Amino acid sequence: MIRRFLPGALVVVAVLTAATGLHAQNSDRANASLDTGRRNAIVRAAERVGPAVVTVSVLRTQLVEGPAFPQQSEFFYPFFQNLRRRYWQQVQGIGSGVIVSGDGVVVTNYHVLKGARDIKVTLADGREFKARYLGGEELYDLAFLRLDADGAGLPVASLEESEEVLIGEWVVAIGNPFGYLLDDPQPTVTVGVVSATGRDILSEREGSDTIYKDMIQTDDAINPGNSGGALANALGEVIGINTFIFSRSGGSHGIGFAMPVGTVRRVMDEIINHGQVREVWVGVRIQEIPAALAESLDLGSTEGVIVASVDEGSPADTAGLRRGDVVLEIGDDVTRNFEDARRALYGRLVGDRVRFLARRGSDVKEYVLKLVERE
């Protein structure tokens, strides 16, 4: 009996063994496919840009307010609890930055470095370097450092402009929002999309208005320590430097803004080549048009701004603008009043070509000004 069924048993065992081997092969193929799927464009972008994103640690001295007698006893506390004093205190600050050249140039935000006395940069691989302040410009909230890292083989994220930033395209924000709290130099990666481009944001800082021009808006989770970190597209191209968020609580609400890489490159060139962002000369003074002036000049409207004077030999003079011209547009912006004109010219750099649309009598004409450095 045993001999009669033994061959069948052997066949069953052989089939089961073959099936097991086939299952293992299919499982391997499935795992390989899953692994390929995991390494998507977002992962590759983070791997490409992440090593060049650094933690910027600073020590700054700032004026703080506190109790006049912080060590007072419980007995005296009721008598002096409202007595305050102001004093200077050394405070640690932290932000993110991006290495953008092989010779150790790092871009970060101006507000990260403002008032800093000692600057240290930590790479994602744990290496630490002292950094020298090259310069910055509060107008753009950009600043630049150079690492003391000769021959250190630094990772670099290129600031080459991508062809176009697309609304709705996937982006990754890479920075170090928690810094020394985690004692971990590895950057944090968050994912979102480009919500809008070309945003002009009016912000009040330390009692004065700042206009952030042409900003990239994203719904990435950007937190305060991300300031100065990279915003990259799915190709691993840096398209902006994370600058600020809209928030009531201080945390992320999915409304973040990055300075576009084209502006970053131009400001960097100014700082490295000239030591500062050179002041531009337009050479025209403008004013709003009150009703009485509009009537006396028979302008027909108070909209626009009128040219009060033009400096001889200035870009405005060379382009052909004259006293009494009514400026209707600057760049792509309609100039209904002085504030519109101020915004349109705010943040322009030496070498910019700016279009003015102006009316002289019944004629409307375009004038193109090439801005030069004020001497």
Describe the structure concisely for a colleague.
The chain has eight helices and 20 strands.
Record keyword descriptors for this entry.
375 residues, alpha+beta, Thrombin, subunit H, Pdz3 Domain, 3 domains, 6-stranded antiparallel β-barrel, 6-stranded antiparallel beta barrel, 8 helices, 20 strands, globular, disordered N terminus
Integer count of domains: 3
Helicity, in percent?
A: 10-25%
CATH fold-level name of the largest domain: Thrombin, subunit H
Largest sheet: 6 strands, antiparallel, barrel
Note the total helix count: 8
- How would you state the average pLDDT, rounded? 84
CATH architecture of the largest domain: Beta Barrel
Please give a structural write-up:
- It is a single chain.
- 23% of the residues lie in helices and 39% in strands.
- The chain has 8 helices and 20 strands.
- It has a 6-stranded antiparallel β-barrel. A 6-stranded antiparallel β-barrel has the order 7-8-9-12-11-10. Strands 14, 15, 16, 17, 18 and 19 form a 6-stranded antiparallel β-sheet that branches.
- It is globular, with a radius of gyration of 30 Å.
- Mean pLDDT is 84; it is low at 1-16.
- It folds into 3 domains: 50-147, Thrombin, subunit H (Beta Barrel), CATH 2.40.10.10; 170-274, Thrombin, subunit H (Beta Barrel), CATH 2.40.10; 280-373, PDZ domain (Pdz3 Domain), CATH 2.30.42.
- By secondary structure, the protein is an alpha+beta fold.
- A hairpin with a 2-residue loop joins β16 (326-330) and β17 (333-334).
- The chain has helices spanning 2-38, 41-49, 77-80, 110-113, 261-274, 291-296, 315-319, 338-345; strands at residues 53-67, 84-99, 105-108, 116-122, 128-137, 142-147, 170-175, 188-205, 208-218, 230-233, 238-245, 256-260, 280-281, 284-288, 305-310, 326-330, 333-334, 353-360, 363-370, 372-373.
- The termini are far apart.
